[in-house]
């Protein structure tokens, strides 16, 4: 039986049973170390829910490799080991969820799914999980900025925990680092995802390569319901707004 110190990651992911969760919460009340670790891992449940809802199972979704925000390797290794250990003992999560959790932790809390439409397998083109999810979403809103000429469409799907969203981004040139920001009707701003735009860009009609002609599809999640959202913004890390999409 692992000590309470060793179950903080499993508690953060919600895979403890009722008795284990109760025991950990009693321990947490007097343990500053566990409270600090829990803070570092907080806010991951909506992201896991978004990943679990993507089409397909039994394989890990592609995750944006360029994202740099990530916890320490020791925390990553420890958390992945905890998840795997609880899975083996209780069979309460599928292998898909374990793989998704590991990929999400490594990519950082802002990452849900970040992929482009191309591939590195000799030209074979397959739809990414984010693109597949986008194509099934009926609630979509679009916008094009008259100055930057960047175009964006945001697909939305209501969830019990908030909103799963997938951004389709076109006519953007790199190199850039960008974020998808949700602006709620109450004025709150939430960063749903962030990614890098390579030199060749995304969704360029006159792109020199097939890769540069394809849009970027990137997923995100937030705690706001669709009817609480005012608009979305794609902004650079320097604060420049590339395009706004009214919800």
TrEMBL record:
This is RNA polymerase subunit sigma. It comes from Streptomyces lucensis JCM 4490. Residues 8-35 form the Putative zinc-finger domain. InterPro entries: Anti_sigma_zinc_sf, Znf_put. The keyword Membrane applies. Keywords: Membrane, Transcription, Transcription regulation, Transmembrane, Transmembrane helix. The keyword Lipid metabolism does not apply. It holds the Pfam family zf-HC2. The chain crosses the membrane at residues 95-115.
């Amino acid at each position: 039986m692992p000590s309470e110190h060793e179950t903080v990651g499993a508690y953060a992911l919600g895979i403890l049973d009722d008795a284990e969760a109760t025991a950990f919460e009693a321990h947490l009340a007097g343990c500053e170390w566990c409270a600090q670790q829990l803070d570092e891992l907080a806010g991951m449940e909506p992201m896991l829910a978004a990943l679990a809802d993507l089409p397909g199972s039994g394989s890990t979704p592609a995750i944006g490799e360029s994202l740099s925000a990530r916890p320490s390797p020791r925390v990553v290794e420890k958390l992945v080991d905890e998840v795997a250990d609880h899975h083996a003992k209780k069979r309460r999560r599928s292998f898909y969820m374990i793989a998704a959790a590991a990929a999400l932790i490594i990519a950082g809390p802002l990452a849900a799914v970040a992929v482009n439409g191309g591939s590195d397998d000799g030209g074979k083109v397959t739809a990414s999980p984010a693109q597949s999810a986008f194509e099934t979403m009926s609630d979509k809103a679009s916008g094009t900025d008259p100055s930057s000429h960047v175009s964006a469409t945001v697909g939305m799907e209501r969830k019990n925990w908030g909103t799963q969203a997938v951004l389709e981004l076109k006519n953007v040139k790199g190199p850039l680092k960008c974020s998808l920001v949700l602006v709620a009707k109450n004025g709150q701003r939430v960063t749903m995802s962030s990614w890098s735009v390579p030199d060749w860009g995304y969704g360029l009609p006159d792109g020199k390569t097939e890769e540069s002609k394809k849009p970027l599809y990137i997923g995100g999640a937030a705690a706001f319901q669709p009817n609480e959202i005012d608009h979305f913004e794609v902004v650079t890390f320097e604060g420049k707004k590339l395009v706004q999409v009214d919800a």
